[in-house]
Amino acid sequence: MGSLVVLLADAPSDTFYTKSPHWGWLIVFYFFLGGLAGGSAFLGGLIDLFGARQDRFAARIGHLLAAPLIAVSGVLLIVDLNRPERFWHMLIQNNTGEPMIKYWVPISVGVWLVSLFGLFSALAFVGVAAEQGWLGGRLQGLRTLREGGIGKAISALTALTGISVAGYTGVLLADTNRPLWGDTTLLGILFLLSGVSAAAAAITLLSGRRANRETLHWLGNMDAVSSLLELLVLIVLVVSIGSVVREVWGNAWGVLVALGTVLAGILIPLVLHWRPNLLGRMSVPSAAALVLIGSFCLRAAVVIASEQS
Amino acid sequence: MAWQTQASPPAQPGPVSTPIGSPGPATPPVASPAAQATPSTQGASGSVEVAGAPVQTGQYNAEPMGFYTDTTVCIGCKACEVACKEWNQLPASNGGANLLSGLSYDNTRRLDGEHWRHVRFIEQFDESRSQGRWLMMSDVCKHCVQAGCLEVCPTGAIIRTEFDTVVIQSDTCNGCRACIPACPFGVIEVNPVNNTAMKCTLCYDRLQAGLQPACSQACPTASIQFGPIRELKGRANMRLEQLQGQGVDQARLYGADDSIVGGLNSFYLLVDEPEVYGLPANPQLPSRNVPTGAGLSALGAAALGVLGAVGLRKHRMDQFAEEARASAASGAVDGEVRGG
Ligand code: SF4
Ligand code: SF4
After folding, report:
1. Which of 3.10.20.30, 3.50.50.60, 3.40.50.150, 3.30.70.20 would CATH assign to domain B2-277?
2. pLDDT at position B335
3. Beta strands B252-254; B224-228: pairing state
4. 20 to 30 A Cα–Cα from A175, which one of A189, A228, B148, B314?
5. Predicted-complex ipTM score
């Protein structure tokens, strides 16, 4: 007890007096996949709304990624509950039957965002499947989901809910009194940026050589810009709450952030972005794979390191 | 779930079955006690048999009620812990097997889903162990006037009662565990028996029947005192003056005024810094970060959106230019054909 008291008396922040919610690897995977899904839909929607015809191939990849990933995310979220059969209590008040939402609570807003994003991304997914001719018979008509005003509306809504899902997960962590999470307001934007760069990387990887060169160039730029901003935010975070970071990341998790996220996930891909000849044909796919790994490491280090504090 | 319903004696409405005001959604993020408290769900007057003794019911008014804990008179007997476990039928941990902490005379170690009271031992010794000081403090949910747990609960399971206390309704909780990191004091944990988040209810079932909480009733030194908050504050201030008059200048109240999360309906008299007792010096609501965090994220999304759109716009313009050139060329060819 004595040692505990001394430890607490020296705590760099009041957040060290609290208990961890046991958000473990399921939540890490959810944050990663949700960010990836949101980012993919965001990029896909941007292409639909502002891009040229030859960019649409990459947009389709984005939509084909988003819907299944957010569906898996939903399952992860439900399984992580201690009482999964009551997941709907977050959407409908169990004792009144009225809708359940607290606009000031990220988790509450997030449950609705994930649901709406699931709906819109599923519509976009079906539309793409019809466009590609994967649906037989009269279902072929569902390609209207990608055309005209309806198509634009679906693209815009998917992009908007998607990018919100990518960002709210970090804000959710800020709405706590836990070390690191509750000590900064930067996790939301950090996760959002890392989600978009991971999505750009994933779309690049899956497109291979089939996507238009201009589109791949745009994806590479989106990846680079979000990675650079991510690095900037990470630096501001470490500088602004140095003593907390020392406590939470002054261990293997800190090494993971430094090597996995910063070096492998940001710096090496940036070098490959500007010197694509370094690895020849492998430059683009290697950079993309590293970005994805970096994005996963970031979420693991943020979630699990604080859990263990 | 038999365990849950057994928690209240048969003749009384349990916390779960009595609807008290509206849950979460009607509650603003930082509400005044008046706004959070739902007026008057007074128990019916009369008397009921509880454990053979006739007890007057409905004797408490719907006003802020709570605990004042004078840590200076706590002897560490843990009667409160036992009384709490007994009344609330909380299970033994480790299947009832003894598990010694090995670091302390205190083997409970923490508040959690099956320990709603915890008598904290602060054992301070010098190297030789010839000099020492013991501090003891019966820790419990603080029933914060601005409660972080209540603020974040996304199912509306956590409510504020007519006594200004904070109660988790186990039939609504789905075990998302958001309340655990939201509490600035680390009070809540999941109870392994029913797999929902649990903590002290300030014996809501007993209060509704006009009984005082089990712990304060069991406390043999009146270290834990129960009553209307305004009355308790008076008592606490008198005791503080008395101690300071005796030269205990480290004596202080923790949570008796509204400087700590709007006030604690379970407040303490301490004789050292709060940190020494494992209490945060400046606990805060988790929502303090949300507006800035959400705003910055929105800013990031907008920046990426604009950058992305500008980049794509160029592709579209190129496409249009290409098409225009192509149609102009084909137009010229057409013209030549017709002219020729
Ligand atoms: S002490 Fe923690 S659990 Fe108790 S009311 Fe305050 S925030 Fe909620
Ligand atoms: S674990 Fe239960 S009480 Fe706690 S926030 Fe989630 S639903 Fe509410």
Report:
1. 3.30.70.20
2. 55
3. unpaired
4. A228
5. 0.95
